[in-house]
Amino acid sequence: MPIIDPNSGQPLTSPDSSETNAAASADVIVDIDMSNFQQVVLEGSMQTPVLLDCWAPWCEPCKNLMPVLEKLAREYNGAFILAKLNIDEHQQIAAQLGIRSVPDVKLIMQGQLFDEFQGVLPEKQIREWLAKYIQAPEDAPQSPEEQAQAALDAGDATTARGIFEQLSQAHPDHVDYRIDLAGALLAEGNPDRARAVLDGLPPEDRDAPKARGVRARLEFGEEAPSAEALAALEGRDDSEAHYLRALRQVADGNYEAGLDALLKLMQRDRAYGDDLARKTLLRVFDALGADHPLTVTYRRRLFAMMY
């Protein structure tokens, strides 16, 4: 859709090269008003993508989002211009853009609105959103979420927990950060604190897929046999022993082995525990998430077995 010039009310026409060169020399972070909107946002986007951040001084989410956008603008080092529009001070521009709530972030390229999002997104999601249109610098640092995930992958749950604690405190409205914190606490060996975080989520978010996944991992840890109980199963070949071994594998994060064992138990003794193997498979899928490769693979195998 075309971008409208707030001064004339008409669609932008292509600028000449001297005007776009002037826009290209602008700083990577620019405050927008009536005097520079056309040059920076409209004409400037013909050469360099412009990320227009519409905000207001009274908007707390805006205050959380703006530092993230500024950080990314500096990191991208001119690959896009961050244009900041205070809608209270420049209501005419906001009206022309159709701004109804803030924060409202619009990506403008070649004088056109390419994409937009409203509200506050985690830094990782903003990076992923930007990456669809603008190439990130090769030496771009990891986002806090990526740092936390790398720490978890390396077995350093304490570092991950610290990062998610900071993110949760800085962005209290981001429920995902609190769910990630619960997951890190669980990985760190603090199931009681993890449960307290999950129980403290808003009621409408407690049953979200991501929260269900962490709660499922928490429950698997409680249900799985201890090392001593597992040793006592040595030599047993009955369905209960196979089930408990599979449960321990899942609780330990050895998901593939646990899923495989549950699927084999289902083939061997579908009636065990009132179809307990299949029900537990579904719980593991919940814990992993619908898009996890193991969920996709074993859901397909489960379907093939049943039908």
What does this structure look like?
This protein is α/β, with parallel strands linked by helices and 307 residues long. The chain has 3 domains: 17-131, Glutaredoxin, CATH 3.40.30; 144-211, Alpha Horseshoe (Serine Threonine Protein Phosphatase 5, Tetratricopeptide repeat); 224-306, Serine Threonine Protein Phosphatase 5, Tetratricopeptide repeat (Alpha Horseshoe), CATH 1.25.40. Helix content is 55%, strand content 9%. The protein is built from 15 helices and 5 strands. The protein has helices at residues 17-24, 37-43, 60-76, 91-97, 123-131, 144-153, 157-170, 175-188, 191-199, 209-223, 227-232, 239-251, 255-268, 276-288, 293-306; strands spanning 29-31, 50-55, 81-86, 104-109, 112-118. Strands 1-3-2-4-5 form a 5-stranded mixed β-sheet, sandwiched between helices. Strand 4 and strand 5 (112-118) form a beta hairpin. Residues 12-26 have low confidence and may be disordered.
